[in-house]
């Protein structure tokens, strides 16, 4: 190698080069190597520079000549550095040796020359632009030693020197992630300087313009700088229009995107949004984006334009007089400082104020913060994980004296029953019937009135009779007295509902309110009504396919159900019943561009306001009659059990904005919906927008569809909920969410869930729901029918655990097997069976939990050998509906106390949370008598994850997720808590072990799962979450979940308990060993620990919707200092969802 170096002839250098012949030769060799950098080993350059360094260090004269004015020696060295900086590893070594500091000092030294050497400055900044990004503290160093100001002055003095501008701007970009630098540069006039560089369309210097726009965009992330740029908004819009018009071949997309990026950052502040609107920015971006739509490669421009327009869309409040629920339930005791007290202490009109201010607008760091040098790494750890080991251990003492708990002994008669009288009489609750009249579906209710049946007290009668349904294809019979002929024939065994089934009549029990609230029978009513000539609706006989459903029994159950609005109507789906479809319903594939299309239609409301009808067609806040419009609008109704729709506004001929009602005694929790629609036109493209959703993401973005029930389909022999809707998406809208409803957070918006729909039947009545409805009256009906399935070998008892705030009873079921005889051994075995405690439906909107519970109950009461073995193995205590009031009144999450009952388990109030108080008391009683359950499981539904999975509690796995230190003794834990989920993952196709988590979070410390684990000492304490959407693994991959799969999950949970029994007591069930095969890796799991990593995810959270453009962003949401800092609470999508939805508006 030395021979190669010596063979290079020295170049003829200018006279300014040092006269020392050896140094001259070395610089000549170095310059030649720079030109041949791609061909020569960098080791040669390293040897040459080492020799130059030696000469400089040993010869003072040589050193002075190299750095003297006019010398090109420094230029050759800098050129060598620039060439060497192409290797990332070498840059890292250079930075670690303090190279950036030396270069910055050279900038200061070179600036002191008069005039500074342009070539040296050019090369210095070229090297710094490459080296700076590798030095995390580069921006701070440049500011503190003054090099940043030198670069700014260099820019100001060389605005026409495009060759020098480019590296200087690149250096500024490297410095701008520091908020202090951004503010300092703004004060130094750099924002105004950038507007002198950028300009209209030109084919020259496009690289410089691109870098200038990127630099300006980075500067404008500071709100202080954005304020300075507000006056330039019209200029930016004009420049963008010019580039849009002239860049016809789309070669400069990055420049156009850079202009939009500047506008995006300016409009993060209120003044910027106002300037954008005043400059007609909405129309400009709308028109340019519309012209870009046919070109797929221009999607980044369309996405950014859409984001800007949505952000600048004037914030509106919801079209409601108040965001508080339209219904109110007076509590006997309102805790001071509680949510209800805070809610109703708000002055009128103050609960929903539009807030367009910017978050922390004046919180700029205007002064130098030296601690910025000591920047801390942002870890992705979750600070919600419990780190107090004492809170992760079971409590040693019980919080309540046993004398206080003895009253709950009566709910455990099976533990003391001697069965000496084998003709054991089971007490099964028959809820007393109310005399409140209930209107059931009849022919005269099609299409439904608004409300569907007789008017409630305080409402006016309808101004005109509602036209009857066209039932030409349906056999209708009518008696003279108005009562239908109840005779009907059953279909032959095996006949499917797809066949024409002989219809039956649903008459005989319809009633309405009389003068003093007395019940008027249908016969009396028929004599008074002008519509008495209309027929009674025929419904299919589904008894063979729905053994637990009885329409007449359902009506009887409704009569004894108490609701705050005093519902007097029955929804058709709840009356007819639901038969799961035989075909699979696939997860909807998202059409490319659907969200963009919907958003542009929303933006058109502002651009073309004359096209908007803005006509209220349904409003629970106004107790007056709807306007009769001659059939030009749809008719809506939600005044039935579990119904939720507060207002419907017709926006365009076939488009409606829908507003959901808050949970009673609350001003938020908008997610569950269930409403009726009629008066539709066949084939018309209807669009429905639910505009006050609250969660930042939804499975509606990942293929979930809404549920629809068609009455025409039902009476034709297909009574079922079906997944429906196209062009479904979920995104942030322009309706401002009050900081009162958002927990004090300002600048928040609601979200829109939109879907399109075409109807297939004329004069149909259709129901839409968030998920398969399951009402409280349905539960009572199912419990009555289950009691009829009891055999002499089955022990079944229903107790009333307590009465709710709304006056509804909370049932408690006990299910096990009767002892084989009255011998002492059999009685002892009966009493000593381990207990399994199950609960469900604490959140009313999670109806899938009730369908899973239905599957569990049907399996437990079944006649199969498995069911019999299960009853022999355990005593089941089941609370199938923890929140009846919330279910009845159409709440999504709360009870009538206005609180989430699953956050009250630590200290429940007997007055405000009776179902939780008494359920916990049952468990405390069991713990006090040393009979704590082997398994506790609370059934839930999950709105933002797929599959079925469990959350459990583990001291060890929680500690693993944190950085706290603990000894091996402190972390000693039996791994049995993983056994049941592992069993389920092996036998239940919808269950995903990978989605399970056993981490205890602070925010969940008052939930059933954590409290039962910690206070009752139940190691296997779980929340079982069922998806509202579908599955992305296993047998059901790519399918939306239905009631069949949910009920199957409930049954498979029972079978899993049998396998768990084999593991916990292997000698007990030898006779049923063929039913209880257990996979060998379960034992390995117990011995070695988990082979499946714990996937931490909050119970109510899911990964953010990964779009190229963040449609969750709005004013005040973006951090000012470091836009690249990720939210530590964000979780990542599965690969499939990430790949399918990375496009921003698809």
TrEMBL record:
It catalyses: C-terminal L-alpha-aminoacyl-L-glutamyl-L-glutamyl-[tubulin] + H2O = C-terminal L-alpha-aminoacyl-L-glutamyl-[tubulin] + L-glutamate; (L-glutamyl)(n+1)-gamma-L-glutamyl-L-glutamyl-[protein] + H2O = (L-glutamyl)(n)-gamma-L-glutamyl-L-glutamyl-[protein] + L-glutamate. The active site is at residue 1025. GO terms for cellular component: cytosol; nucleus. Its EC number is 3.4.17.24. Its main location: cytoplasm. One of its GO terms (biological process) is proteolysis. Residues 352-374, 1098-1121 have a biased composition (Acidic residues). Keywords: Carboxypeptidase, Cytoplasm, Hydrolase, Metal-binding, Metalloprotease, Nucleus, Protease, Zinc. CDD domains: M14_Nna1 (cd06906). Its cofactor is Zn(2+). GO terms for molecular function: metallocarboxypeptidase activity; zinc ion binding. Residues 375-387, 479-488, 1127-1146 have a biased composition (Basic and acidic residues). This is Cytosolic carboxypeptidase 1. It comes from Oncorhynchus tshawytscha. The lineage of its organism: Eukaryota, Metazoa, Chordata, Craniata, Vertebrata. The gene is AGTPBP1.
């Amino acid at each position: 190698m030395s021979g190669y170096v010596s063979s290079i002839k020295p170049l003829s250098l200018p006279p300014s080069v040092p006269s020392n012949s050896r140094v001259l030769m070395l610089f000549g060799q170095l310059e030649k190597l720079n030109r041949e950098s791609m061909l020569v080993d960098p080791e040669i350059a390293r040897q040459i520079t080492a020799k130059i360094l030696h000469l400089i260090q040993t010869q003072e004269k040589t050193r002075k000549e190299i750095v003297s004015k006019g010398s090109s020696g420094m230029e050759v060295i800098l050129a060598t550095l620039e060439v060497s900086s192409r290797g990332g590893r070498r840059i890292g070594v250079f930075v670690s040796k303090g190279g950036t500091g030396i270069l910055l000092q050279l900038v200061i030294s070179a600036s002191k020359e008069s005039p500074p050497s342009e070539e040296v400055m050019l090369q210095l900044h070229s090297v710094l632009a490459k080296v700076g990004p590798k030095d995390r503290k580069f921006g701070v160093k440049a500011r503190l030693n003054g090099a940043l100001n030198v670069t700014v002055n260099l820019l100001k003095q060389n605005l026409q020197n495009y060759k020098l501008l480019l590296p200087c701007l690149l250096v500024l970009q490297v410095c701008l992630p520091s908020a202090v630098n951004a503010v300092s540069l703004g004060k130094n006039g750099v924002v105004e300087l950038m507007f002198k560089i950028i300009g209209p369309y030109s084919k020259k210097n496009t690289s410089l313009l691109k870098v200038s726009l990127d630099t300006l965009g980075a500067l404008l992330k500071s709100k202080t700088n954005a304020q300075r740029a507000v006056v330039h908004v019209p200029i930016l819009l004009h420049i963008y229009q010019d580039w849009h018009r002239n860049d016809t071949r789309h070669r400069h997309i990055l420049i156009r995107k850079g202009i939009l990026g500047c506008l995006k950052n300016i409009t993060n502040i209120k003044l910027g949004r106002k300037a954008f609107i005043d400059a007609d920015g909405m129309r400009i971006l709308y028109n340019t984006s519309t012209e870009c739509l046919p070109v797929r490669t221009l999607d980044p421009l369309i996405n950014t334009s859409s984001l800007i327009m949505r952000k600048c869309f004037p914030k509106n409040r919801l079209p409601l007089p108040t965001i508080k629920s339209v219904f109110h339930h007076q509590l006997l005791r309102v805790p001071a400082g509680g949510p209800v007290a805070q809610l109703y202490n708000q002055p009128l009109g103050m609960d929903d104020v539009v807030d367009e201010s910017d978050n922390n607008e004046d919180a700029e760091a205007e002064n130098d913060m030296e601690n910025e040098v000591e920047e801390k790494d942002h870890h992705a750890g979750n600070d919600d994980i419990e780190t107090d080991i004492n809170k992760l251990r079971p409590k040693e003492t019980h919080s309540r004296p046993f004398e206080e708990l003895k009253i709950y002994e009566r709910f455990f008669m099976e533990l003391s029953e001697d069965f000496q009288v084998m003709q054991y009489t089971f007490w099964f609750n028959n809820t007393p019937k109310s005399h409140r009249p209930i209107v059931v579906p009849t022919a005269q209710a099609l299409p439904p009135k608004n409300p569907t049946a007789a008017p409630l007290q305080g409402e006016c009668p309808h101004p005109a009779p509602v036209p009857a349904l066209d039932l030409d294809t349906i056999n209708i019979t009518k008696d003279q007295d108005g009562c239908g002929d109840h005779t009907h024939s059953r279909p032959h065994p095996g006949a499917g509902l797809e066949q024409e089934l002989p219809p039956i009549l649903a008459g005989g029990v319809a009633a309405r309110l009389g003068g003093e609230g007395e019940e008027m029978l249908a016969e009396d009513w028929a004599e008074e009504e002008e519509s008495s000539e209309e027929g009674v609706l025929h419904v299919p006989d589904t008894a063979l396919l729905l053994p637990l459903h009885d329409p007449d029994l359902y009506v009887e159950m409704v009569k004894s159900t108490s609701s705050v609005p005093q519902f007097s109507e029955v929804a058709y789906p709840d009356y007819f019943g639901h038969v799961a479809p035989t075909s699979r319903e696939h997860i909807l594939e998202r059409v490319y561009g659907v969200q963009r299309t919907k958003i542009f239609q929303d933006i058109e409301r502002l651009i073309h306001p004359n096209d908007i009808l803005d006509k209220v067609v349904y409003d629970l806040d106004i107790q007056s009659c709807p306007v009769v419009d001659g059939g030009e609008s749809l008719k809506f109704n939600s005044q039935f059990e579990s119904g939720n729709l507060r207002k419907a506004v017709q926006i365009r001929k076939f488009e409606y904005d829908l507003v959901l009602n808050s949970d009673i005694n609350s001003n938020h929790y908008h997610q569950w919906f269930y409403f009726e629609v009629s008066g539709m036109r066949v084939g018309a493209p209807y669009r429905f927008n639910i505009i006050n959703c609250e969660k930042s993401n939804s499975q509606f973005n990942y293929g979930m569809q809404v549920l629809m029930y068609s009455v025409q389909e039902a009476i034709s022999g297909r009574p079922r909920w079906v997944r429906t809707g196209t062009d479904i998406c979920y995104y942030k809208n322009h309706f401002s969410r009050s900081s009162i409803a958002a927990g004090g957070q300002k600048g928040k918006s609601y979200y829109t869930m939109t879907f399109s729909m075409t109807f297939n039947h004329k004069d149909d009545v259709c129901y839409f729901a968030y998920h398969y409805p399951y009402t409280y009256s349905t539960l009572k009906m199912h419990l009555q029918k289950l009691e009829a399935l009891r055999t002499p070998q089955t022990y079944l008892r229903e107790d009333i655990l307590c009465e709710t705030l709304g006056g509804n009873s909370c049932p408690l079921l006990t299910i096990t097997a009767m002892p084989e005889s009255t011998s002492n051994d059999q009685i002892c075995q009966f009493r000593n069976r381990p207990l399994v405690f199950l609960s469900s439906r604490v959140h009313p909107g999670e109806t899938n939990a009730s369908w899973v519970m239905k599957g569990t109950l049907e399996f437990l009461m079944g006649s199969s050998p498995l069911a019999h073995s299960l009853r022999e193995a355990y005593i089941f205590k089941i609370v199938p509906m923890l929140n009846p009031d919330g279910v009845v009144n159409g709440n999504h999450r709360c009870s009538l106390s206005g609180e989430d009952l699953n956050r009250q388990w630590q200290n429940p109030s007997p007055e405000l949370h009776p179902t939780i108080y008494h359920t916990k008391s049952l468990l405390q009683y069991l713990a006090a008598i040393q009979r704590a359950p082997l398994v506790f499981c609370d059934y839930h539904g999950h709105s933002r994850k797929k599959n079925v999975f469990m959350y459990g509690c583990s001291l060890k796995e929680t500690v693993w997720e944190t950085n706290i230190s603990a000894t091996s003794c402190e972390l000693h834990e039996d791994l049995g808590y993983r056994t049941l989920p592992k069993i389920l993952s092996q036998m239940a196709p919808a269950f995903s072990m990978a989605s399970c988590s056993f981490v205890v979070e602070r925010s969940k410390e008052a939930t059933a799962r954590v409290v039962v684990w910690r206070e009752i000492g139940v190691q296997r304490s779980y929340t079982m979450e069922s998806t509202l959407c579908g599955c992305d693994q296993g047998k059901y991959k790519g399918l939306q979940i239905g009631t069949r799969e949910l009920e199957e999950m409930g049954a498979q949970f029972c079978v899993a308990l049998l396998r768990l029994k084999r593991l916990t007591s292997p000698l007990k069930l030898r006779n049923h060993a063929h039913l209880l095969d257990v996979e060998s890796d379960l034992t390995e799991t117990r011995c070695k620990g988990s082979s499946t990593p714990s996937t931490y995810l909050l119970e109510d959270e899911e990964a953010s919707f990964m779009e190229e453009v963040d449609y969750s962003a709005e004013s005040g949401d973006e951090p000012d200092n470091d836009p690249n800092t990720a939210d530590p609470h964000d979780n990542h999508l599965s690969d499939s969802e990430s790949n399918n939805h990375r496009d921003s508006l698809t």
